[in-house]
Protein 1
Amino acid sequence: MPYDPAFILTADNRHEAVSFLMDCGYGQAALAIMSNVAMANAYHKEGWTRTPTPDAIQRATAKAILDTMAAMPGGRIDEELVRYLARQECEVMLANLTPQRLEIVTPTSSAIIDGPLHYCTPLVIQIASLGDAIMLVGPAGCGKTTIGEHVAKALGLAFYITNTINDTHELTGFVDGHGNYKRTPFRQAFECGGVWIADEIDAWDASALLAANSALANGFASFPDSESPVYQHPDFRMVATANTFGTGADRVYVGRNELDAASLDRFAVIEVDYDINLERMFAGTNDRWLERVWSVRKTVNDKKIRHVVSSRAIGKGARALSIGIPWDKVETIYLFKGMSSKDRSKIDD
């Protein structure tokens, strides 16, 4: 049976999922004891991995072009027609790149999340459902904040984010010259419930980090507009993001601070890396650009060059190339931005 990205498992159609998974190589005995949730996730995971790859898209596009050229009278090539056909073929194939769909079960509910999803998403959602504060540690541009958005969606909670904090008032708010209290995303989530992203927490001001740590430890916090402490809402969830494991600056992330043991002990720490499957999607049909970015990333890591090669470079570079911006300019703008000429010379040695 063909894969259906909108498929939702029920008691009535479980046999369809069983049939599909048996075609994928699953054993009948294993399927017989598989829960509905596990079966639904397996169904969509297998369907996701069987969707057209960039290689398949390029092959189909090339075949369509060759067939068109062969059919042209007298061997005359209509370049505009060929370009048009190539665009149409790519669009059709890309439309079939179905998003991932997962059913996430938590102690209080279940939710279906549509992708594209980072591979860490299900684990982070499950831990957040327990109420534990989470710290996602990984390189810039690997999808940490997007994972936090999916946590909020899965738990049915509001989503808030606070970027790098340089002073405690950016966390707790302040009373302006007219006597009006200015609320913050932290205050809103802490008091009313919601998923709060503490972005780049390893670059925060130490006093602000201490205030957040105190609120997590005590279950209440002080704010400028209230003489009494404000107690943490049962649906408050904190997801911190960081580029380091709280050990301070390194060769790439030079502006990072050390986090004390008490702060680190509050978090469930999950390491997040670039998701290769998502990066393939970001590249669309441009395998050459995807492989170039991956090659540069490997060289940067192997030669310990102080530079970040993120997933953003893949998506933004592929889009720029698709509208005709020259390759060398795309490399300069999206891949080698800010890299010294000395380090640049090491890339293709």
Protein 2
Amino acid sequence: MKNTMKFFFWLVVLVGMGWFADAQQIDAPQPIASAATNESATVDKPAQTFVFTGAWFQSAAAGQQAPKKTKTQSGPPKPMNPPEIDPSMVGYIDDASIGNQVRVRFDAGFDTPRPDRAEYFYQGSPAPNPPTSATQRTLNFQELYLSGEYAPFKRLSAFAMLPFRWIQPIFIVAPGTTPGLSDEGGISDLQAGLKFAVLSTERSLVTLQLRSYFPTGDGPHGLGTGHYSIEPLVLFYQKLNDRTALEGEAGDTHPIGGTMYMNPPSPPRQWSADVAMYGLGASYRLIQRDSYSFAPVLELVAWHVYGGLQTGSNNQAQSAAGINVFNAKLGGRISFTNGSSIYAGYGRGITSDIWYRNLFRIEYRKSF
């Protein structure tokens, strides 16, 4: 019984001394952190001795929260995602970037001597031209493109392009002959497709693009090819430094169907054929201001025709297999900080076989 009374007596004494020490810590002024004196060390001892008091738990909890204040004062963490890549500067090579944008583009082409070559520009003739038909020497054309791209994800986008075309064929009209084609205008072949970026870094971008062509244009009147096509492309963008960038493309246009050329007793032959394309473009930001920048652009683009037909100088169909076309294109793009830009450029056929001799292009682009 005496031992029990002693136990409760000393328990009351210990708890009372702990309460008294806690009251002194609350009422006493807080020591300055930078002044490490013996007096402050003495004040800390009761908190270390009476570990069972409620105030010690509060002090320990306050000590655990101290690092949080230090973490807050260090500032927010840096973002992990790399910054957006610079916008494309090229005007003829397809854009490798993924994003939301609209474009309005206008082309004016001159001296197109073989517009039906492999049915790449417009539809070929299903039969030999009669002797009374005039010989087409060349063709001039204008095209207006309205296009939009929507990116529901950072690396994936869908796009569509609606073109309008006007043509002015030029014939050699001999006595007793009549042109087989006249000036025309209207909707050309609708284009739509998908883009997926397989590689995206701060300085590099590699994109797979699949474009489809739909025969919405009037093929017999020179406004379309008259068949479907698919066009897989690999597009890339490489930033060399703060001002210089390289962009390129490589792919193939594959026809699905096409016009059959009938000239008995020869077997039927198909006008359309695969056409490979590849190009490289370099841009340099010559002028950089707070509200705009200007970059001259040089692009080199080539095509290789694997087969198909084209109308020859004798007004008869001939093979187009193995033809190579090479163009040089020079232009410039002015970009504004609100996401819009304007491109103007000139393209010229370099090789003896050409799609066109001269082409002028102007484009407005708005990114969102």
